[in-house]
Every structure is written in structure tokens, then in C-alpha cells.
Design brief:
Length: about 425
């Protein structure tokens, strides 16, 4: 009997055809690395497809690579400094220009495509094609074993040999687009530590009974200042808040959720920049309107009406309200303190906080303590703010990894 043919061999196998995986494969391929890209899902880059309302918030101009901890969190937020400094938003914008994709800035440096997220997916696939990347999808990687000079992977299309393996499988957020814990399992298999994963950029929920007075406000949005934590741990954002049937969402809450810890309160200023105590004191001197109607100058009328229902002392004309009642009302609106009971979980989380401990990785190359095994993108314990920062981490970590693969490739031209 003839011996079976040896498994196909590649310089690197990239597992995960999302933002980080596609970009890493394309860059590495164009640097002369023989790359196989595999993914178990039916479609590539589903998170790109649904991001930014279908237009892809692909980066943020305000990212400061000299101080990345401003926009990223993790057990070691300085870890991302090197990769973000070497591949900046301007670098990715240049690639977008090269492919003729029109885009615009929404606000606070957030860049969106003018047309569709599909523009960016086609761009990344074109970059992979330019690098001669072999792409198997749908094709799951089942097992990875170290042996000989590299790794043997068992896939749905048979075994594969590779000198290096790149894990770009993302995190646990949005399971309906085929998110899995594969990357975390591979890290554990090779003895690498994990920072416990948790949902981030996620709506917060409250006890049904306690929330009942505010459930009627579902759909209401307003600008607020929101904060959590104390002293050095304190974090605050000025963004829009959205009431939901179960709790709070909107950019303000998504941002603060990454810093919130179970049992901690959040504090919300519902009329930021307004001295409500002074305004209400003045209103008392000149107005006979109901207090709720006066409040509607500074907060939405629906919120004002729901708010005054909490205390009979607020359900009267402003000129008849006691000074103490007005002061308490102003204080409560300026510092609404409440303790979430939880979050909407992985189903609604935009990203995963936690993941592969960055102390196990090289910040220069993304290679782990296990030689030839790399981790990039969301699977790593680096989490960005809302507004394109997580995509920029995907591009930057992928770029650093791709160049490391090229430098380690003995067959590089």
C-alpha cells in the first residue's frame, strides 16, 4: 500500500476570518509568508458587517498611540502601546483611501464608511488575495498539537502542518454570529493564563420592581455625564443615555459598562453643565408652572414627569415647592446614583473584556510564551472604548503579528 500524502504545509495558519485575522493574513501574505486562513463560520467578518449600523466604525482619529491607556483597558493597558504606535489610524485610513472607499467622521473622531460595511470586507479579502492567502471557509480547526518544527492542526478538511499558528478567533460577544471560546481553550491548552472574560460595551439592567417607574421611558435618549468607581479607579464619560424596558443603554452606558463591576453604583448627571439648584431657585421667584414643566427646560419632558412622581413634594407648582424639596430634586438629577443588577450579557455585548493575559505575550510580536503561537485582536486582554478603538486594536495587533511572521519566515524573499 502506498503511504498517504503528507498534510499540506504552510508557514502560518491564521484561525479566525474576522477583522484581525483577515488583516493579519493579508499583510503576512504580501510579505512573503505562505498563509492558510480558516474559519468555522459560513461568512467572513460578521462583526465588521454589523458594526456601526452596517457602515463599520473602522477606526478613531482621536486615538493617541503615545498614551493608549486613555482609550483601552485591561490588566496591563500599556501592553497595546507598541502595536498602536507602529500601526496608527492614519495608516489604516491610507489603506481605505487606496481602495477608494468613501468615509466620514461622525463625532469624537469616529470614522464610518459612507456606504456599507461590505466595502471593508471586500477590501480585506482583496488584500488577502494580493498576498496569495489560501482561504478555507467554512472549515473548523478542531485540534492543535505542537510537534516537530511547528504545529499539526486537525481541520474539517484534514490535517495541516504549520510553522506558526495565529489565534484570531475573537471573544464571546454576540454568539449569534458564531462567537466561541476556541481561543481561550487553546490558550489554556498551552498553559497560558487568562484574565476572566466578561461582557463589555454592554447595556446595564436593573431589578424589575425597582425599574418599573422608568420602564415607561424606554426609547428616550438624552446627553448625560456618567461615572463609576472611586478615586484612582473613577471613570467618567460625556455621552448619550438611552432608557430601555430593562435598564439603560446608549453610548454612555456602553462606555461605562467596561469599567463597572458587579455591586458598584453608577452615578449619572441628567443635566450636565446646568446648575439646577440655582435655576430652580430662580424659577420659584418668577413662575407658577408645575415643577415638571419647569424641569422640561433642561431634561426631556417625559423624564421630568416620571421623575417628579417619586416624591409628592415635587408634584406641585414650582412657586409652592419648598426650598429643601427643590434642592433635593436638583441633587438627585445631578447625581442619580443606582446599582445595576447585571448586564444584558454576551447576547448584547459588543466586545469581550478579559482574555489571554498580556503578560503571556510579546507586545512587539503578539507571540506567546509557547513559541510559534500568536494571539491577536479581541481574544487578547485589550479592550477599547466605543467608537472604532477595538477595530484599530485589531488592525494594529494583526500588523505587528504579520511582520513578526515574516521576520521568522526562512523562505521570505
Amino acid at each position: 500500500m502506498t503511504a498517504p500524502p503528507p498534510p499540506p504545509s504552510f508557514d502560518a495558519v491564521v484561525i479566525g476570518a474576522g477583522a484581525a485575522g483577515l488583516f493579519c493574513a493579508g499583510v503576512a501574505g504580501q510579505l512573503g509568508v505562505k498563509v492558510l486562513l480558516v474559519d468555522h463560520a459560513q461568512k467572513v467578518a460578521e462583526k465588521i458587517r454589523i458594526s456601526g449600523g452596517g457602515r463599520c466604525n473602522f477606526t478613531n482619529r482621536e486615538l493617541d498611540p503615545r498614551a493608549p491607556h486613555k482609550h483601552f483597558l485591561g490588566a496591563n493597558p500599556h501592553f497595546c502601546r507598541s502595536a498602536l504606535a507602529r500601526y496608527t489610524p492614519a495608516d489604516f485610513i491610507a489603506l481605505v483611501h487606496k481602495h477608494g472607499i468613501p468615509f466620514h467622521e461622525k463625532h469624537k473622531g469616529q470614522l464610518f464608511g459612507d456606504r456599507s460595511s461590505e466595502d471593508f470586507i471586500r477590501m480585506l479579502l482583496a488584500e488577502c488575495a494580493a498576498g496569495g492567502v489560501t482561504h478555507w471557509q467554512p472549515c473548523a480547526a478542531r485540534e492543535i498539537a505542537a510537534g516537530g518544527e511547528g504545529y499539526v492542526l486537525q481541520t474539517d478538511r484534514g490535517p495541516v502542518h504549520a510553522r506558526a499558528v495565529v489565534i484570531a478567533t475573537g471573544g464571546l460577544s454576540i454568539p449569534k454570529i458564531a462567537a466561541t471560546d476556541f481561543g481561550h481553550r487553546i490558550a489554556r491548552q498551552f498553559g497560558l493564563r487568562l484574565v476572566p472574560p466578561r461582557p463589555a460595551l454592554v447595556p446595564l439592567t436593573f431589578d424589575g420592581g425597582d425599574w418599573a417607574p422608568f420602564a415607561q421611558l424606554a426609547g428616550l435618549s438624552l446627553p448625560v455625564r456618567i461615572e463609576t468607581g472611586e478615586k484612582k479607579e473613577r471613570m467618567a464619560f460625556d455621552e448619550d443615555l438611552l432608557f430601555t424596558h430593562r435598564g439603560l443603554s446608549g453610548p454612555a452606558v456602553l462606555q461605562i459598562s467596561s469599567y463597572w463591576r458587579e455591586g458598584q453604583p453608577i452615578r449619572i448627571d441628567l443635566a450636565p453643565g446646568v446648575d439646577l439648584a440655582a435655576e430652580l431657585a430662580q424659577a420659584k421667584l418668577r413662575s407658577r408652572k408645575l415643577l415638571a414643566n419647569e424641569l422640561a427646560q433642561w431634561v426631556p419632558a417625559r423624564l421630568a414627569e416620571a421623575w417628579v412622581q417619586q416624591d409628592p413634594a415635587w408634584q406641585r407648582p414650582v412657586n409652592e415647592a419648598g426650598d429643601k424639596a427643590l434642592q433635593q430634586l436638583a441633587q438627585r438629577l445631578a447625581r442619580w446614583e443606582l446599582v445595576p443588577t447585571g448586564t444584558e450579557g454576551w447576547r448584547k455585548a459588543e466586545v469581550t473584556a478579559g482574555g489571554v493575559d498580556t503578560h503571556e505575550l510579546s507586545s512587539q510580536t503578539m507571540e506567546s510564551r509557547q513559541p510559534g503561537l500568536y494571539f491577536i485582536g479581541e481574544v487578547v486582554d485589550v479592550t477599547g472604548w466605543l467608537g472604532g478603538y477595538n477595530f484599530q486594536w485589531a488592525w494594529a495587533s494583526a500588523y505587528a503579528c504579520a511582520h513578526a511572521l515574516a521576520e521568522a519566515n526562512p523562505g521570505r524573499p
